[in-house]
Structure to design on (320 residues):
């Protein structure tokens, strides 16, 4: 089997105009740098002629691999299956819309091979996007830095480079492609670098992303922060919180009972325990505490008996 220096994974959706130019550009870089590059196109259920264009390209270049989803699964799914077939020493991801420059490939590879980074993320310092996109992006990156503790300027940049073992060790699903540095760090790959890369204005078509991606991205970030901390020990979170709530409710109910008995011993008329609103708050706390404790216990049992790897429906393949 042919050994490649690089695997370039390209997720795409309705990018028929840009694909020939992008492939020619990558081929030129490979020739100039004397690099053996395999190009992996992942068609995320395109409705235009993207797959026909890829078939034409693959007929002329045996180093092109391609997969086509039966329906749209999203960028994370496309990256996941692309990582699955990648075999190069270094794996580089880029978008198919020509906004990422293949001329960045040699320097990104050098940072992995020679400088020893596990992963390098591109930073589009100068962007050609409207304010409606750049302002939310800045807020998103700020929040991600604060929550993840990883000091990158542009988490969502599609142009990234990885050691092969990194992409084989992470599971990218949902909308988690934005947080691959977070996933890599959680998998034990801590040497994560950053490189300023060129951002080009879109040449063909229109953007496939709307404002909802930032809302979904924030929710995914909160989920990832929680999962990264407690996925291996859910009892620590649910059991700890449940125990606190149960004892709060128990001692609250105990104080209500003791107060009632003390009032009776002093001959003071006191309201019924069941007429005291605090009694119901205490009872609810004990019930919720017990449920949270059981949720943590059940999560621990499930974790010990299951493993997760997402599968996607691939309709067609080329050379893979």
């Amino acid at each position: 089997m042919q050994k490649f220096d690089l695997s370039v994974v390209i997720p795409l959706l309705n990018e028929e105009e840009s694909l020939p130019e992008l492939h020619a550009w990558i081929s030129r870089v490979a020739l100039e740098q004397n690099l053996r590059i395999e190009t992996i196109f992942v068609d995320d259920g395109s409705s235009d002629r993207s797959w026909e264009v890829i078939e034409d390209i693959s007929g002329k270049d045996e180093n092109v691999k391609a997969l086509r989803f039966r329906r749209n699964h999203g960028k994370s799914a496309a990256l996941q299956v692309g990582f699955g077939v990648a075999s190069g020493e270094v794996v580089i991801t880029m978008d198919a819309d020509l906004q990422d420059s293949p001329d960045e490939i040699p320097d990104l590879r050098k940072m992995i091979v020679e400088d020893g980074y596990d992963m390098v993320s591109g930073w589009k310092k100068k962007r050609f996007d409207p304010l409606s996109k750049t302002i939310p992006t800045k807020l998103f990156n700020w929040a991600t830095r604060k929550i993840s503790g990883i000091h990158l300027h542009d988490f969502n940049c599609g142009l990234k480079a990885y050691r092969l073992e990194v992409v084989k060790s992470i599971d990218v699903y949902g909308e988690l492609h934005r947080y691959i540095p977070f996933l890599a760090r959680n998998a034990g790959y801590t040497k994560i670098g950053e490189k300023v890369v060129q951002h080009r204005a879109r040449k063909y078509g229109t953007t496939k992303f709307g404002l909802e991606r930032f809302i979904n991205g924030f929710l995914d970030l909160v989920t990832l922060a929680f999962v990264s901390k407690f996925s291996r020990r859910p009892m620590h979170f649910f059991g700890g919180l449940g125990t606190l709530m149960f004892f709060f409710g128990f001692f609250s109910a105990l104080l209500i009972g003791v107060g009632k008995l003390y009032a009776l011993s002093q001959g003071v008329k006191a309201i019924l325990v069941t007429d005291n609103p605090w009694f119901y708050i205490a009872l609810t706390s004990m019930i919720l505490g017990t449920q949270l404790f059981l949720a943590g216990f059940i999560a621990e049992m499930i974790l010990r008996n299951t493993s997760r790897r997402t599968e996607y429906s691939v309709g067609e393949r080329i050379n893979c």
Remarks:
- The chain has a mean pLDDT of 86.
- The longest strand covers residues 6-12.
